[in-house]
Structure formats: structure tokens, C-alpha cells
Amino acid sequence: MALQEELEQQGIWLFRYRGILPVIILGVGMLLFLQTELHPETFFLKKTPYEIYYEMFCLVVSLLGLLIRIFVIGYVPKNTSGRTVKTQVADSLNTTGMYSLVRHPLYLGNYFMWLGPALLSGNFWFIISFTLLYWIYYERIMFSEEKFLRGKFGGTYLTWAEKVPAFVPNFKNFVKPNLTFSWKKVVRKEINGLFLLVLIFFFFDYLGVLTKNEVNYNPFLFYSSIVLTVAIIVIKIIKKKTDILKQENR
């Protein structure tokens, strides 16, 4: 098999099992986080007044990733910016909004979302390793997606791809989105991601508290988890019983 076809097949396979990477990141990250909690001398911010600010910084990094995803999802039409487990979906080519800045904005958002928990570990080499692993992993997924889009949209895709970078945004290229922002689609698609993000940070905080034999949990993370749990239950009921969150072509 030629290298081009091999990379494409790897990308298709990696996308199908893309849920494995976050589990690996969280597993290793939590072990390193516990090590840092038990041996605070290994991370210069531990046991200092600045530790809480660093943790909040990590959360902000992850929320930045989620915000990128929200700006993507909120402006794209139905059957774009996504795939089913086995097949790619693209009824049209997105070239405005976030897609005028970078060709793979969702993966850029995902990177920052998972970078936050990686930063929490306080281990410099793990953060570097995560970044390299993420790039190798998603480079193949992006390769397979771009081959599909080039085959479907031909010259239109090539013209767009020539001026829009793959992963590092070029803000000079910004083109206003064609569609209005859809909060309904964002709520449908991204509420679970927000809940998972807050839950992960709360769990890290909980582990840290356990290692110190304390009971002073981060109140923001604790109450946010409760509020989001209730919100998800309400949203699921609304989606099942009503059409409030449905929107034509979105």
C-alpha cells in the first residue's frame, strides 16, 4: 500500500476510535497530578498562593477550546463539520467564519480543551508529549478528511486550502459567516462537552483534596457540576418531548 493510502486508512481508523486518546491523556495526567500532589517539590507552584490561579488558568485554556468549538458549531449548516462513526459527511464546504481562519477549527478547539487537563499535571514533559502525540494522531485524521473533501469539491477546495492554514489560524483571512449564530445547535451539540470539562476539573480538584486529607473543594467547580447536571437532564427532556431546540438546516 502506498504511503498516501496508508495515511488515509490510518486517519479513518483513528477517527473511529478517537475516544481512546482522551482516556489515555486523562489516565496518565491524573497519575502525574497525584504524583505532584504527593511530592509538591516537583512543581514550583505547589504549596504557593499562586497554585489556585494556575488551576484557574488551566480551566480557562480548556474553556477557550470549547469557545472555539462553539463558534464553529454555531455558524455551520447541517451535515457539515462532522462525520458519523464510519463515513465522512459534507453536503457543502465551509469556508467562512472559523473556517476562513483555519481548515480544522474543531480539532484546534479539541487541542485546547485537552491541553487544560494536561497542564494540571504540572509535568512539563507530559505537556510536550501530549502536544506531539496529539499532532501525530490528528495529522492522519486531517489527512483523510482533506482527501475526501478534495475528491468531492475539487478546485473549490484547493483554492480555499491554498490560502487557509491547516491548524494555526491566520486572522487576516477572516470572512464573516454566511449564517446567523444558532444557540439551539450549540446547546444540542456542546452542552455535554461543557459538562464533561467541568466534571474533569472537579475530579482533579477532588483528588487533590483527598491527598491532603482536606474537605475544602473548589466551590465553583462543585456547584457548576450540579447546575450542569440539572441542565443536561432538562435539555434531554426538552429534546425528547418538544421541538424547541430543533432548527431547519441546522
Strand-helix topology:
Blueprint: H1 3-16, H2 20-38, H3 51-73, E1 82-83, E2 88-89, H4 105-120, H5 124-153, H6 155-163, H7 183-211, H8 219-241
Antiparallel strand pairs: 1-2
Helix pairs in contact: 1-5, 2-4, 2-5, 2-7, 3-4, 3-7, 4-5, 5-6, 7-8
Question: In words, what does this structure look like?
Answer:
The protein has 250 residues and is mostly helical. The chain has a single domain, classed as Four Helix Bundle (Hemerythrin (Met), subunit A). The protein contains 8 helices and 2 strands. The chain has a two-stranded antiparallel ribbon. α7 runs antiparallel to α8. The chain is globular and about 60 Å long. 26% of the residues are buried. The model has no long low-confidence stretch (mean pLDDT 88).
Summarize the structure.
The protein has 250 residues and is mostly helical.
> Number of folding domains?
1
Helix content: 55-70%
Number of strands: 2
Shape: globular
Second rung of CATH, namely the architecture: Up-down Bundle
Keywords:
mainly alpha, 250 residues, two-stranded antiparallel sheet, Four Helix Bundle (Hemerythrin (Met), subunit A), 8 helices, globular
